[in-house]
Specification:
AhpD-like, about 170 residues
Length: about 170
């Protein structure tokens, strides 16, 4: 049960919130829970929607790496909504079933091709930074620009998870 009302009905919103609502629906296909929470502060909701669109649809990360990072972030922060929203997308993007199982339950092994992204996300979430060793390894593998994008993605999904958890909507 949400602590605050989720803003799900366009017709009940003022014009500023309706504009953000429409933008989210236009870019996502429907209103989705993070924005049902964030619409309480339409300026933040609008800015977040633009950043999210950039990260999800216009970034340089491969679909595999992006979705792996999203489900790892959702697992670290225990945000079931984001996990459920992205796990099938992650499967479709080629994230190994063993990795998905290991992330969700802690049983099994992370696929070797997935380990670097998982380790980066976990370390960043735990420490708000990564070691030089972790940075160097991932920078060689995906390049500077993608490391920055990956860091922004983790921050973005952490932000969404925090807002939804505080609202009781995760």
């Amino acid at each position: 049960m949400a602590r605050i009302p989720l803003l799900t009905h366009r017709e009940e919103l003022d014009s500023e919130r309706q504009a953000v609502f429409d933008s989210v629906v236009e870019t996502r296909g429907s209103m989705i829970r993070p924005y049902e929470v964030l619409l309480h502060t339409p300026g933040i909701a609008g800015a977040a929607a633009k950043l999210g669109h950039q990260i999800r649809y216009q970034g340089q990360l491969s679909d595999h790496d992006r979705e792996l990072a999203i489900i790892t972030t959702s697992q670290v922060h225990d945000c079931e909504f984001e996990w459920t929203s992205h796990v099938d997308i992650a499967r479709s993007a080629g994230v190994a079933e063993g990795t998905i199982t290991a992330l969700k339950s802690g049983a099994g092994n992370i696929a070797p091709d997935d380990q670097m992204i998982v380790d980066f996300v976990r370390e960043l979430c735990a420490n708000s930074n990564v070691s030089d060793e972790t940075f160097d390894e991932i920078e060689v593998a995906i390049g500077t620009s993608r490391v920055i994008e990956l860091s922004a993605l983790v921050g973005y999904y952490t932000f969404l998870g925090y807002a939804m958890k505080v609202a009781g909507a995760c």
